[in-house]
Design brief:
This protein has 262 residues and is of the alpha+beta class. It has helices at residues 3-25, 41-47, 59-62, 104-107, 234-237, and strands at residues 30-38, 86-91, 113-116, 127-131, 135-139, 146-151, 156-161, 166-167, 180-183, 191-197, 202-204, 210-217, 219-227, 230-231, 241-245, 249-251, 255-256. Strands 2, 11, 13, 14 and 15 form a 5-stranded antiparallel beta sheet that branches. A 5-stranded mixed beta sheet has the order 4-10-9-6-7, with no helix packed on it. A hairpin with a 7-residue loop joins strand 9 (180-183) and strand 10 (191-197).
């Protein structure tokens, strides 16, 4: 074998190793984020038991499945998971994601219709998240009338819905910084909240306090934890918690929820 051929083989081998090494360390551009919001054992003992509600209207129906309890803080007594916490992302700086920082499939996703029902004198869901362009369908699957008094920056209505009826607002939802609210004035303990975003990177914790945000942009990001009682860690939490998101799936450290004092 000539010296020239040997040098050529060495050069090709070197290029192959570089290419292999690049592939080995390359990080995915999109990451699925998972985590949990919970209460510590000490807080769990203090807050896990929900308070009974004072039901004064349509008592027989409203308590037909048992006494109603407050839903402003729903905690799983088995694992301390906190339900109905909004978890959402923002860029490391600023409030708006650049177009290239949103996964193409999410950027082009079709608006959703979100159903709110009130089958037994409580709203289902109590809390949810939506995106600009999503629409509402308000149902009343109970045998008694309800009204839904909805208030956001861009959409407000107060609609009475007969037993078994439904109402669909013509106007779609639009993003806002504060929580939009809905309530039933016939049954004044019935309340609900929604956060409306201008991007797809949000979730609401489930009955175990767990959440998942798919196809988030890899790299520096801020994560927010917001409950109807306020931001986790109050004013500091309102700024978001910096994280560096890497990998295909990233499990964030569980959050021990700390709400502002009332």
């Amino acid at each position: 074998m000539t010296v020239l051929r040997i040098r050529t083989l060495i050069a090709c081998l070197g290029l192959s190793l570089v290419a292999f090494g690049s592939n080995a360390v390359a990080q995915p551009k999109w990451v699925t984020i998972q985590g949990q919001v919970k209460l510590s054992d000490l807080k769990l003992k203090e807050l896990a038991k929900p308070a009974p509600l004072n039901v004064t209207t349509d008592v027989a129906h409203c308590q037909s499945k048992g006494p109603l309890t407050a839903e402003d803080l729903i905690v799983n007594p088995k694992n301390g998971g906190v339900k109905n916490v909004w978890v959402y992302l923002k860029p490391a700086t600023g409030d708006v994601f650049a177009p290239e920082a949103i996964h193409p499939e999410l950027a082009n996703a079709k608006p959703k219709q979100i159903v709110i029902d009130q089958p037994c004198c409580q709203f289902i869901p109590r809390a949810f998240a939506a995106r600009t362009g999503d629409t509402l369908l308000i149902k009343n699957s109970s045998p008694v009338p309800h009204n839904t008094n909805f208030n956001s920056d861009d959409l407000s209505f107060n609609q009475t819905i007969a037993a078994g009826g439904e109402y669909k607002p013509e106007k779609a939802l639009k993003a806002q910084r504060s929580q939009a609210t809905y309530a039933c004035n016939i049954h004044p303990w019935m309340k609900g909240l929604v956060m409306i975003f201008d991007h797809p990177y949000f979730a609401v914790t489930d009955a175990d306090g767990k959440y998942e945000i798919k196809d988030a942009p890899a790299g520096a990001i801020r994560v927010f934890y917001r409950h109807e009682g306020g931001f986790h860690m109050g004013k500091d939490g309102a700024k978001g918690f910096p994280n560096n998101i890497v990998g295909v799936t990233m499990e964030l450290k569980p959050i021990d929820l700390e709400l502002p004092a009332k």
